[in-house]
Amino acid sequence: MSDLPLVRLAGVSKGFVKGKDAITIFDKLDLAIPAGDFVAVMGPSGSGKSTLLNLLGGIDRPDTGEVQVAGSRIDALSEGELSAWRAAHIGFVFQFYNLMPMLTAAQNVELPLLLTRLGKADRRRHVETALTIVNLADRAKHYPREMSGGQQQRVAIARAIVSDPELLLCDEPTGDLDRTSADEILGMLKALNRDLGKTIVMVTHDPAAARYARRTLHLDKGHFEEKELAA
Amino acid sequence: MNDFLLIRKNLFRKKLRAILMIVSILVAFAIFGVLAAFERAFNAGEEVSEADRLVVVNKINFTQPLPIAYFNRVAAVEGVRQVTFANWFGGYYQDPKNFTVVMAVEPESYLKLISTEYAFTPEMTEAFVRNRTGALVGEQLAAKWGWKVGDRIPISSSIFSQKNGSTAWDVTIVGIFGKNKPQADTTLMLIQYAYFDETRSFGKDTIGWLVLKTASPALNDQVAKSIDGMFANSPYETATDTEKAFNKAFVAQLGNIALIVQLVVGAAFVTILMIVGNTMVMAIRERTREIAVLKTLGFSGGRVLRLVLGETLLLALIGGTAGLLLAWLATRAMSQSLGNFIPGLSLSPGIVAAAIGFMVLLGLATGLVPALNAFRLRIADGMGRG
Ligand SMILES: Nc1ncnc2c1ncn2[C@@H]1O[C@H](COP(=O)(O)OP(=O)(O)O)[C@@H](O)[C@H]1O
Ligand SMILES: [Mg+2]
């Protein structure tokens, strides 16, 4: 784990207008996450966990403040630049897998590679590698509906890592899974962090899930409280 | 995998829905193809007609006769360079089903006047003039029945009969002529007016219409006025117009086909535009979350827009091509049974090109709204919250 911060928020404020009310989610929030870290983010529902991931992934913009991720000031990028930036630097894993139902596992994993210059053969190799990492090489030709939730989430992880991004953003990746499948997924994320050096920010409600991370941030009323775990 | 596969998989993810949309597009393009082929066939006469040729018909309607004496009187009108006349024979060969265009004409003047579209050799012209029961036959018609020069054949009329009661006239083929213009149709037969007029049981000394050439197209209006003025208030008043206008009137008699084509095709297209457009809007709305996911992965708004437009274009091309194929089969079958009445019934390259243009327009029009929705979709909104 290097000390160079991969993620740095400085004075980030963010709010939403809901009807007539303006609600503030973050008020001058600071945060640094070094490359190679695995952070669990916990907090009550509505505390802004997903909003935080959206800011880190260039899906949403802060009202004020700076968001620096993987060397870029992403709050200053245009929509088009953000698309390309996300494709190169970020892997997303969602609670509900979000695979394309009409594509096979391999095709789902290949999707992000359509945005690269890789040729057909190279793409196939990358897809094979990613599916092997998540232990699903034998399911390449299966459709999402033919797989369990845990397997679908593993395909989603393969899709998230296939273009080799530095940062994985996971929003309640085990929220829809049973304990066994959840442990499998969490073990996989832990291995990705430990063995491949992926930096991971994972939102979760589950304290057992949080224990897989190196540290946990508690988000409440727009501020973090940190609990470092013995790694 | 590539974008095309993605588009194809998206289109066919709900097979029944895709097939229903394809069938509705197919039907519209099949209608378009067949009607456009008919319209083109009916208007072919208009394309070949000459600007400097005028047609004189009975004012009541072109099926009414004119006295033959008008031939000489029109020839004397100032500005008229050549004039000839013809009489519709209402011909068929052996069976009334085998409708055949036969015209009784004054040989010398008629051949001279229509030699711009038809190729007559001096030998066949001479043989036709000399031989009272002679007939000149166009290449296509001769090929159809395997007729050769020298053949003696009976040609029947569904309108006229001979004084002896027979409805068939025996004629000898004295020449088979080709054409000078690609659009000209050679499924016709010319016989001598003199032979026809002397033997028919009624209508003697009348003709169907006069065709004339003026010294210059600029004189057309003036010549037409003086001819119609000359016969005004007589028992046989005339209406003189350009051949183009005459052919148009002929088409109008058959029903205003161009207008019908436009209305039917227009109605079919508006209907599928609404059905397919609406279905696609709903189909893309169902996929809101997937589009948000694609954008999360780094697909740009433009790329997503192209994927949706590609889908509606593919849909229109599949349905349209299938419909055109059906129209091609239908016109081929119809030209076999109707070829005599409506020569030139086929899907021309022009019709195919227009159809492809319509497919692209349809694809873009039905994809526009859903594609823009997808383009504008914000990821956070598309993913829902949770
Ligand atoms: N696009 C939005 N428009 C309006 N309000 C929003 C939007 N996104 C999130 N919010 C609100 O911001 C708050 C934080 O949302 P979120 O980050 O999804 O919370 P969490 O993931 O911690 O449950 C909630 O009150 C939510 O309703
Ligand atoms: Mg959330």
Automatic annotation (TrEMBL), chain A:
Transmembrane regions listed in the UniProt entry: none
Instruction: Name a GO molecular-function annotation.
Output: transmembrane transporter activity
Under InterPro entries, the record lists: AAA+_ATPase, ABC_transporter-like_ATP-bd, ABC_transporter-like_CS, ABC_transpr_LolD-like, MacB-like_ATP-bd, P-loop_NTPase
One Pfam match, given by its short name, reads ABC_tran
Q: Does the keyword Transport apply?
A: yes
Q: Which CDD domains match?
A: ABC_MJ0796_LolCDE_FtsE
Per UniProt, the keywords (alphabetical) are: ATP-binding, Cell inner membrane, Cell membrane, Membrane, Nucleotide-binding, Translocase, Transport
Q: Domain ABC transporter, which positions? A: 7-229
Q: SUPFAM superfamilies from the entry?
A: P-loop containing nucleoside triphosphate hydrolases
For this UniProt entry, what's an example GO CC term? plasma membrane
Similarity remark: Belongs to the ABC transporter superfamily. Macrolide exporter (TC 3.A.1.122) family.
For this entry, the protein name equals: ABC transporter ATP-binding protein YknY
TrEMBL record, chain B:
> Residues in domain ABC3 transporter permease C-terminal?
266-377
Compartments reported by the entry:
Cell membrane
Please give the chief subcellular localization of this protein.
Answer: membrane
Sequence ranges assigned to domain MacB-like periplasmic core in this UniProt record: 21-228
State a single Pfam family of this protein. MacB_PCD
Looking at the UniProt record for this protein, which Gene Ontology cellular component terms does it annotate, in alphabetical order? plasma membrane
Superkingdom is Bacteria
The membrane topology noted for this protein in its Swiss-Prot or TrEMBL record is: Multi-pass membrane protein
List keywords of the entry alphabetically. Cell membrane, Membrane, Transmembrane, Transmembrane helix
InterPro entries for the chain? ABC-4/HrtB_transporter (IPR051125), ABC3_permease_C (IPR003838), MacB_PCD (IPR025857)
Q: Which residues cross the membrane?
A: 18-38, 257-284, 304-330, 350-375
Q: Does the keyword Membrane apply?
A: yes
Q: What is the name attached to this protein's record?
A: FtsX-like permease family protein
